[in-house]
Amino acid sequence: MGQPEVGILRLSKQERPAFWATFFGWGLDGFDYMIYTLIIVMIMKAFHLSPAQGGMIGTVTLFASALGGIIAGTLSDRIGRVKTLGIAILFYAVFTALSGITTSYGELLVFRALEGLGFGGEWAVGAVLIAESVASSRRGRILGLVQGAWALGWGGAVILEIIVISIAPAHLVWRIMFWIGILPALLVVYVLKKVPEPDKWSHLPEQAKVQTLSFWRIFHPNLLRRTTFAALLAVGAQSGYYSIFTWLPTYLKTVKHLTVIGSGGYLFLIIFGSFVGYVFSGYINDILGRKLTFVIYSVFSGLVILLYTHFHISNGLMLALSFPLGFFASGIFSGFGPFLAELFPTEARGAGQGFTYNFGRGAAAFAPTIIGLMAQHYGLATGMSIFGPSAYVLCLIALIFLPETKGKELEDYVDASGVMH
Fold first, then answer.
1. How deeply is 26 buried, as exposed, middle or buried, from its count of CB atoms within 10 A (0-12, 13-18, 19+)?
2. Is the Cβ–Cβ distance between 335 and 281 less than 8 Å?
3. In Å, what is the CA distance from 46 to each residue of 34, 157, 167, 320?
4. CATH number of the domain at 211-406+413-417, out of 1.10.10.60, 2.60.40.790, 1.20.1250.20, 3.30.428.10?
5. Distance CA 99, CA 241 (A)
6. In sequence order, what DSSP letters do the residues of 85-101 get, joined into one string?
7. Any alpha helices (H) in 218-348, and if so which ranges?
8. Is 410 helix (H, G, I), strand (E, B) or coil?
9. In angstroms, rounded to a whole number, what is the distance separating the alpha carbons of residues 109 and 89?
């Protein structure tokens, strides 16, 4: 970067604004998203919703976030990373707050869908922004720290719920939680005024930005292989994650009859394990490489599922195992930021990152349903133990067809022979 590095994070003066903008943006992203998971029971009671209707709100948000990531990633290739990031943060903050004034199920469904567009767009663009702003030798660990902000936002939402429940009338708790979600909008001012566009994007010829919609560029023959298998990698990792965090609590409560699930200690250790997993994964990505780190986290995530479904687990052991559960299942995602950025050229990096990761998110939304159908015929343990590890096997297969990118400088374009320049 040509500037001295300062502070414990060893960030240069140019890198610091981009880091803090994406760190707080992703943390507040997690804060806003997790608010719904904490107050879903209150909302169902307020609007007299069935479990299916309550779940539909989450599903719509998830699908909209996948679309938002694709749109925002493509837009960032055209108008810039910083402007698009600001729009995404403002979008999800405003519609989270507006969710708190809804008077019907239909209104809430619409506002949560619109919140999802911004939620998905923030990660896609933020990951590209920080990847293009930091040195290649530290890209993994810096993006790992940014990813770790999600766990901090999750923890912040839990703390907020405890505070609001203790001081507010019960019927207003869920509304207040949503209203506080407007806070990320304050970050937009900082993002737009303090964070410079990365040199990689700024120095890209104007013709490369506007000649072709970058979304179609990632399906060109010289990028199609990377697009296909990067998307499959995202499908595997996110399907495995959803299979764990959607059905595992139900399985442990109803089949194993554990009472520790949902307790404060269990939740704290999962969140703490997730944070450590995110950060540690970032460092391992820079030391061992992108592909080997994905292999390690995929293998151990699959083993965690088998451990929970095939061995006797007591309340005490479950509490102890909640840390590695969060560590491996969440930590795998730190690799996507640097790896996807390094797989695609500057002219289509936003579109590539936005599409592949969010295609995985959209496809993985079916994972809980598939496991549920398998459970009807073979039992929940069998469904989880087959589908979950199989999802991580898909990660291993996809990695075979993807190049190692550790330590490589970001490239601007791919020529007709498929060589990055």
1. buried
2. yes
3. 19, 20, 19, 36
4. 1.20.1250.20
5. 27
6. HHHHHHHHHHHHHHGGG
7. 221-254, 264-288, 290-310, 315-331, 336-343
8. coil
9. 19
Kindly report the pTM of this predicted structure.
Answer: 0.86
Alpha carbon distance 83, 201 (integer Å): 12
CA 242/CA 244 separation, integer angstroms:
5
- When computed from its CA atoms, the radius of gyration of the chain, rounded to whole angstroms, is 21
Task: Choose among 344, 328, 323: nearest CA to 392.
Answer: 328
Q: Rounded distance, CA 406 to CA 283, Å? A: 12
Q: Which DSSP string corresponds to 126-183? A: HHHHHHHHS-GGGHHHHHHHHHHHHHHHHHHHHHHHHHHHHHS-GGGHHHHHHHHTTT
Chain-centroid distance, C-alpha 57: 18
CA proximity to 294, closest of 400, 191, 178: 400
At 11, is the secondary structure helix, strand, or coil?
A: strand
Domain ranges of the chain: 8-198, 211-406+413-417
Cα dihedral value 44, 46, 49, 54, nearest 10: -30
User: d(Cα 403, Cα 291) in Å, to the nearest integer?
Assistant: 8
CATH number of 8-198, picked from 3.30.70.1230, 3.40.190.10, 1.20.1250.20, 3.40.50.300? 1.20.1250.20
Reported as type and span, the H/E element at residue 13 is none
Residue closest to 185 by CA, chosen among 111, 39, 65, 85: 85
Amino acid 300 reads F
- Residue listed under structure tokens 């496991």: 371
Please name which of 140, 130, 123, 61 lies closest in space to residue 96, comparing C-alpha atoms. 61
Per-residue pLDDT of the chain (421 residues), as tens digits, is 444 444 446 777 778 888 988 998 888 888 887 888 788 888 888 999 887 787 788 778 888 888 999 999 999 998 999 999 999 988 888 999 999 999 999 999 999 999 989 988 988 899 999 999 988 888 999 999 999 999 999 889 888 888 999 999 989 999 999 999 888 777 777 777 888 899 888 877 665 555 567 888 899 898 999 999 999 999 999 999 887 777 666 667 676 666 655 556 777 888 899 999 999 999 999 999 999 999 999 999 999 888 888 777 777 777 777 888 889 999 999 999 999 999 999 889 999 999 999 999 888 878 877 887 887 788 877 888 888 899 999 999 999 999 999 988 887 655 555 555 5
